[in-house]
Amino acid sequence: MDKLILLAHFPKISPKRYQQLLAAFSNIDNAWEAEFDELTKIGWDVNLVHEFLTWKEKINEEVMSAVLEKENIICITIDDVDYPSLLKQIYDPPFCLFVKGKLTNSEFNLAVVGTRKCTPYGRQVTEELVSDLAAKGITIVSGLAFGIDSIAHGTAIKARGTTIAVLGSGNNTHNIYPTAHRDLAQNIIEHNGAIITEYPPGTEPTAFSFPRRNRIIAGMSLGTLVIEAGEQSGALITSSCALENGREVFAVPQNITSHTSIGPNNLLKMGAHLVTKADDILDALDLHNVSQYVTNKDILPDSPTEAELLKYLSREPIHVDMITKQTGLTSSTVNSTLTLMEMKGKVRNLGGMMYVTAR
User: Fold this and answer.
1) At CA 310, angle to CA 309 and CA 315, rounded to 5?
2) Whole-number mean pLDDT of the chain?
């Protein structure tokens, strides 16, 4: 098993500690072989070093692999092509994601969050907005919680759209939280969505893990829409994460006498985009033509070589040398295939040998 995936199973690993290992040892394989003195030199507490080394001696790779296989969980590391490109841009992206279902590196994600104790108004607004957005190709990202989250997921599925749930626990069946939403989680997977987490199988949710997962919800999204939220709502943590990473924040105006009005109304006072219809979000993000871009997923290769190149091509420009390196194909093969794909209208050369998919 990849040492990075093994490391992700260590209960006390974090993005910061991962970066410390990477900075000190150049790669995780070297870090994995580091001894006590070397680990203390990078700033790890003595007790943490003892705990890590003891844990490493006791782990059983075969058992870990068996659990992942049984639960149909795959691991996507930060260097994988399928790792969400938007998420890479935040301050502390998870170095490994445990994924159930289909996680595509979409650039058109919107976080939809709100209170667990939503009102009939909140339900109505969520259903109307999400239905329109999902039908137009926007992937809805939320946290599988009661209230607004679950309504957003369910509505996206009904609209034949795609939705992703981010957990603050392991995403093995036993640990999906809340347990009442295990069927919803399965429904998301069956409709080409995904259940993702940075926590390995067997991890129970904690008061710390929920706020941490909110940075992923916001980080992999172009913007965050807050439907309803009290003054201390976790939805406001998600919106704060969005602002910290330069993403847009949207809010639905609320009745000032409602207990769920404080969060979104305060966000509007601070400059969040006011939303009364889906077009308000599409206008702000310039996504009215998103359905045309989403057809990228439907570009069909005419050869195994085209199929290999399409794994690494997206709407984000990539240099031909990087494509050659990532595919392992010869430079002449990559160049000739790209030329043919450009003639077919599948890719575009932006100049300087930078390529993107054409639609």
Assistant:
1) 120
2) 91
| CATH number of 38's domain | 1.10.150
Provide the token pair at 255.
Answer: 């009745």
Residue 297 has pLDDT above 70, yes or no: no
Percent of the chain scoring above 90 in pLDDT: 71
Distance CA 359, CA 353 (A): 18
Is the confidence at residue 292, as pLDDT, over 60? no
Q: What is the CATH number of the domain that holds 347?
A: 1.10.10.10
- Based on the fold, state whether residues 272 and 178 are members of the same structural domain: yes
Nearest-angstrom CA–CA distance, 68 and 179: 20
Residues 148, 31 within the same domain: no
What pLDDT score does 346 carry? 86
Residue 296, pLDDT above cutoff 60? no
Cα 179 to chain centroid distance, Å, stands at 22
Q: Both 146 and 278 in a single domain?
A: yes
On whether both 313 and 277 belong to a single domain, the answer is no
d(CA 306, CA 142): 34
Q: Name the token pair of 144.
A: 């599988």
Query: Is 178 in the same domain as 50?
Result: no
Residues 278 and 317 occupy one common structural domain: no
* Residue 60, pLDDT above cutoff 60: yes
Number of domains in the chain: 3
The pLDDT tens digits of the residues spanning 238-289 come to 999 998 888 999 999 988 888 888 999 999 999 999 999 999 999 998 887 6
Domain that holds residue 341: 299-357
Taking 70 as the threshold, does the pLDDT of residue 80 lie above it? yes
Of 258, 288, 318, the residue that ends a domain is 288
